[in-house]
C-alpha cells in the first residue's frame, strides 16, 4: 500500500496558494477570451501596457524598465518584445548613451491595439471581480502588500 501523503492544509480550500492558482487560471481564461480577437496574449498585453504607462513619463523606456514595471524576467521580456515588434506594435531602437539597451516605443498600430485591449481587459476585470463589491479596494490593497513583500525573492 502506498504511503499516505501528508498535507499541511486540511482541504484545498484552506490553502491560499491553491486558491490563488485556481483564481488565476479562471481570470486568465477570461483575459484570453477578450485578448484573442486582438491577437494578444495576456503577457503581451501586460508588456504593451507597461510600455504605454512608462512612456507617459519617459521617452527612453528600456527593456529593463518594462521588466521592473511588470515584475517579469528580463529574458522573457526580450522574447515577448521581439514578438510585439514582429507584429508591428512596438519599435526597438538603439539607446543614445547605453549601447546594451534598446529604447522601446509603441507604434501607431500598437497604440490602437493597446487602447482597445485596455478597454476590453478593464471591462473583463470589472466583471470578474464584481462579486467582491465594496471589498474590492481591500482586496487590491492586500494584493499590493503581497506583491511588495515578495517581489524581490
TrEMBL record:
SUPFAM superfamilies: Winged helix' DNA-binding domain (SSF46785). GO terms for biological process: response to stress. Residues 13-152 form the HTH marR-type domain. The keyword Secreted does not apply. PROSITE patterns: HTH_MARR_2. Keywords: DNA-binding, Transcription, Transcription regulation. One of its GO terms (molecular function) is DNA binding. It comes from the Bacteria. This is MarR family transcriptional regulator.
Amino acid at each position: 500500500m502506498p504511503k499516505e501523503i501528508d498535507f499541511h492544509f486540511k482541504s484545498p480550500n484552506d490553502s491560499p496558494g491553491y486558491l490563488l492558482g485556481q483564481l488565476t487560471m479562471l481570470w486568465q481564461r477570461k483575459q484570453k477570451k477578450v485578448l484573442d480577437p486582438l491577437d494578444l496574449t495576456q503577457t503581451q498585453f501586460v508588456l504593451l501596457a507597461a510600455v504605454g504607462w512608462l512612456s507617459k513619463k519617459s521617452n527612453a523606456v528600456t527593456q529593463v524598465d518594462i521588466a521592473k514595471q511588470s515584475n517579469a524576467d528580463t529574458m522573457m521580456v526580450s522574447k515577448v518584445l521581439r514578438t510585439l515588434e514582429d507584429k508591428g506594435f512596438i519599435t526597438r531602437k538603439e539607446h543614445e548613451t547605453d549601447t546594451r539597451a534598446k529604447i522601446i516605443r509603441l507604434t501607431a498600430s500598437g497604440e490602437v491595439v493597446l487602447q482597445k485591449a485596455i478597454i476590453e481587459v478593464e471591462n473583463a476585470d470589472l466583471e470578474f471581480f464584481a462579486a467582491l463589491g465594496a471589498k474590492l479596494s481591500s482586496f487590491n490593497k492586500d494584493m499590493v502588500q503581497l506583491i511588495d513583500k515578495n517581489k524581490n525573492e
